[in-house]
Write a structure and sequence with these properties.
Layout lengths: L2 E5 L4 E5 L8 H10 L7 E12 L2 E5 L7 E5 L6 H6 L5 E8 L11 E9 L3
């Protein structure tokens, strides 16, 4: 982890991860729970490569980190079609991940609100 900022008044935790970090959203939520708080939906900005995973678009990271499935966000319908044109490209993606119940085994999904292609 690079750094963390917590505001109890706002009910907000902001976490910046170093690029080589392999922590998952589930691990962050579990840390929040173990400190007596209830995690809610999360907004995140991540950088990864657009891939197809099981017939769905996903954002892939380092080999040891699971990918995030990509879905349309209600505020930005149609972005998945634009993302499909970016298969293999490295993008910065911003969106929301809804809360899951403790122990719920689901593949994390990010509801894409915007994205940008990175120059490499």
């Amino acid at each position: 982890m690079d750094s963390v900022r917590v505001s109890l008044n706002e009910g907000l935790a902001t976490v910046w991860l170093a690029s080589e970090n392999a922590v998952t959203i589930g691990q962050i939520r579990e840390a929040i729970r173990s400190n007596g708080f209830t995690p809610k939906a999360a907004t995140l900005r991540v950088v990864g490569r657009v891939v197809e995973d099981g017939g769905e678009l996903a954002l892939a990271f380092a080999a040891s980190t699971p990918s995030l499935r990509l879905t349309d966000h209600a505020s930005a319908p149609g972005l998945l079609e634009e993302l499909r044109e970016s298969l293999g490209a490295t993008l910065s993606v911003e969106g929301a991940i809804q809360e899951t119940r403790r122990g719920e085994a689901t593949v994390p999904r990010i509801e894409v609100q915007k994205f940008a292609r990175l120059r490499r």
